[in-house]
Each structure stands twice: as structure tokens, then as C-alpha cells.
Amino acid sequence: MRLRLQLALVLMAAVVCRAQIIDRMVAVVNRQVILQSDVEQAARVEFLLDGKPLDQLASSATLQDARERLIDQALLQQQMVTTAQLDPTPEELAARLRDVRAQIPGASTDEKWQAMLAAYGVTEHDVEDQIVSQIRVLRFVDLRFRGLVRVDKTAIATYYQDVLVPELHKQGAPVPPVDKVSSKISQILAEQRIDGLLNEWLQTLRSQTHIAKMNMEADAVSEVKPEMKLGAKP
pTM for the full model? Predict the structure, then answer.
């Protein structure tokens, strides 16, 4: 789940001086262009949703990570034949936005929320766009991999004994019988295996895809791979 949720983005050093930055390509994925402004906007939204301070946006490593997530996102979007069945309804989007705001300290009132959006240099529409992208990816990956994952009783018992029980003992918490938590353990293991399948598939797609990366401080190509057809199977 964390990997999928992270297919969402990050930054540019001069966020406060955004208007002074000349937009340019920072990556091309099968002719799909990723602009510096795309990375910056994704970064600002991610930092807002995670409650990270703006001064951390100046990290070049964060910028590189953001671009990699946008590349992964582009690879997945290119595999989607249609997004109609993946998009949330207006009601689902509104509910998700409420949930997001509830998790951000200081975003409870509309006035404070608008002030936070302005401070991070984004709009509510930018946040909604990111939420829609996240939901599309989650649903697409679930449709592709959920049917391939099987969690048996042995795996559940192993997780219970090797992971859950020691963790509960460390916390001084009571240990429930395995049958009371088997459903939750099965869900955790299924999510872990889906993440593993997704990671393997993304690596395959990257190996088959034309990906050009430009230096985000100078327009020098740092990586180019031969263009090949997509469509690899997990």
C-alpha cells in the first residue's frame, strides 16, 4: 500500500519564487513529457498532505525521488486502456478530500484550509487532482494483481508468531488468539504481496521503456534507454 500511495510526487528548490522559474522538461517517458512544474506541484501537494515544512522542499534528493515517482505513475497510466471505471465519483472524491483534511493539523476550518493551500502554493483543485490520480492507481493495481494473490493458513500463522506476537509483547499489549486476527493478517500479507508484484512489474516496464532524464539544473540527458513496446506481464 505504501508503494502505491507513494506513486504521487515531489519538488523544486525555489518554490517560493515559482514565478521566476522557467519551465522545462525533466523527463520523457515514451514521448510523455514530465515538466519541472509537474514535479514541483506534486511535491507541494505531497508536502501539504504529509504535513512537512516548506523548508524541506529545497532537498535535491527529494526532487529526484519525486521525479522517479512521476515516472512510475506515467508508466502505469500508459497501461490503463481507460480511466472511466477507475475514477472516483464526485461523492467519493468529496469524502476523500474531507478525510484528507481531517488528517492535516490546522485544516479543520475552510479559512485555515485555504490559508494552508496558499502557503504551499497549491489550490484545492491541485489536491483533488492528486487524490484522483492516487485512486486510479490503487484501483488499477488492485484489479491487475488482487486475483493473483493467495494467502494460506501457514503464512498467516507464521506472521502471527514471528511478527505480531513479538510486537505486542514489546508494547505490553494483550495477545489475541490467532483466529481473531487472521482476517487482518491475511489483508496485510495480501497488500505486501501486491506491492511486491507491482514493484517487479514497474522494473520490467522501466526496462522496456524509452526513458530520458534531464538534469534538473541543466538540460543534460543523464539516462536514455532503447524504446520498446510496453505490455509486459507480471
Answer: 0.75
